[in-house]
Amino acid sequence: MATFTFVVLKNCLSVNGTRSLWTSRLLLASHLPIVEGSKKDGFKFESEEEYEKNIKIKILSASLPFVNEFGWSRQTISAGAEALGYPGVAHGMFPKGGIELIQYFYANCNAELNKILKSEALAIEENPAKKKKPPEVFVKEALEKRLKMMIPYKSTWPQAITLMTLPPNVPNALANILTLIDDICYYAGDRSVDVSLTQF
User: Fold this and answer.
1) 19-77 tens-digit pLDDT
2) Is the pTM of this model over 0.85?
3) CA 145 → CA 23, 98, 113, 151, 188, distances in Å?
């Protein structure tokens, strides 16, 4: 069953015969790192939307240390806002509540893993003497790295999973998982759209 699901997901992640890393990033665009505003004469200009997005990201980032105390909740977001000097009611900027914090954390972990995998792939390209790992080993190690990122939130992760399985949250949760799978498969060497899992 898991293999079949993976094969189905694998086929959904392909475009024109090659694997692509953009797969579900469009759906997660609001949770990816911010692109800086335009610069003119050494000064950075942000639109109002970019400014608000930057504040939201700062608040979500500052909220993570409070997750173990308050869980994945509005209270955690309030604590993060207060830690930055914003009023606790700033949690109103996050109408979906704790799920926005979960999505931020998940997307950031995926982005961090992507950077790690990319740097490892570049290191192998630059040094041909370095052996490429077999796909099974590569996938196993990549998943271990990704799981280790969740260790600080191990005690509250069941709550996060529960929130991600609520119907309104499923599309973003699936997009995060698909992005994770796509990144790992891509850097493991799978660029095919073939159903066979031996195409690495």
Assistant:
1) 444 445 544 555 444 434 444 455 566 788 999 999 999 999 999 999 999 999 999 99
2) no
3) 21, 24, 7, 10, 14
